[in-house]
Amino acid sequence: MSTSPVKVAVTGAAGNIGYSLLFRIASGALFGPETPVELRLLEITPALKALEGVVMELDDCAFPLLSGIEVGDDAEKVFDGVNAALLVGAMPRKEGMDRADLLEANGKIFIGQGAALNKSAADDVKILVTGNPANTNALIAMTNAPDIPRERFNALTRLDHNRAKGQLAKKLGVSVSEVKDLAIWGNHDDSMYPDLYNTKVGGKSAASLVDEAWIKDEYIPTVAKRGGAIIKARGASSAASAASATIDHMHDWWNGTDEIVSMSVPTDGSYDVAEGIISSFPCRVKDGKYEIVQGLELNDFSKERIAATAKRLQDERDAVKKLGLI
Ligand code: NAD
Ligand code: LMR
């Protein structure tokens, strides 16, 4: 076992996602069975009492890899020396709301947290934003952390990726592990685009195995509206699956992956998506660095959908600019 622990910050640690996330990190799901972890848990002051209870439960699990836990409501202190930061803490939407309706209330959180990471995180910090609207919150944090390289800010679209894999595997009656090269493009909102034309199942394009009408009228809307469907059914937004996807994303960013995965990353002009937003792309990760997969062929439908979801992100960016958040 290596001796120095990875310091990982989790914000909103007393919330629903936090309750699923912390125990998996502490058990080794994120950094592997050889790497000790130190948890740095940030909450707002009124939630510190509830967080105390969660910490008691973490203690009671006697996780061999958990080398320490620090808790607080001061972002600069909690983020001191952190190598990974999972920014989950933010209000979830309620039934009937869009995620973008949270921009003003949640966006502010990411000004202070971006600035605090800029001041006190470790030089190698990797930051993943789960709190909604995740892509634009990540943009706000990134803009407020000018000394941290831009590519260290990601947002979560892995939940959409996992949903898209699951729905396709179900339709075709195959295991999710047979679905390859699937990717979500764009924003974590209902404009997101899961591209089945470049997805492979048994070596064939997934789009050739299903009806085009099913892709357009059922599959894409089901994936895009899954978060809302869960809120309707559960009376609360997805939590265990969101925690699992947060682990998947940071796990792959940390450990590398040959598979194509969906990561929301700062745009660099790839596939004609203009710079200045954080958008989901097919990515691979090597040596701790993600790369947007290049050279994929996109048909006209895919190009239209990708442009439309990028436009949503540009509109969100313009809205937070107007609010003075970036
Ligand atoms: P929750 O309300 O159960 O928990 C949120 C926690 O964040 C609360 O404990 C709250 O006290 C804390 N918090 C609020 N402001 C904070 C701040 N400034 N600093 C630190 N902590 C703060 O919500 P949840 O179900 O855990 O969801 C959290 C966020 O994740 C929501 O915005 C939700 O919409 C989002 N989410 C995103 C995805 C995704 O795929 N990107 C999936 C599911 C949920
Ligand atoms: C999800 O996709 O489940 C989350 O973003 C929660 C939501 O508001 O849909």
Q: What's a quick, concise take on this entry?
A:
By secondary structure, the protein is α/β, with parallel strands linked by helices.
Q: Would you write up a description of this structure?
A:
The chain has 11 helices and 14 strands. The chain has 2 domains: 6-155, NAD(P)-binding Rossmann-like Domain (Rossmann fold); 157-321, L-2-Hydroxyisocaproate Dehydrogenase, Chain A, domain 2 (Alpha-Beta Complex). It has 326 residues and is an alpha/beta fold. The model has no long low-confidence stretch (mean pLDDT 97). The strands form 4 sheets. It has a 6-stranded parallel β-sheet. Strands 7-10-11 form a 3-stranded antiparallel β-sheet. The structure holds nicotinamide-adenine-dinucleotide and (2S)-2-hydroxybutanedioic acid. Nicotinamide-adenine-dinucleotide binds at residues 11-12, 14-18, 42-44, 47, 88-93, 109, 130-132, 134, 156, 159, 188, 237-239, 242. Nicotinamide-adenine-dinucleotide is lined by residues 11-12, 14-18, 42-44, 47, 88-93, 109, 130-132, 134, 156, 159, 188, 237-239, 242.
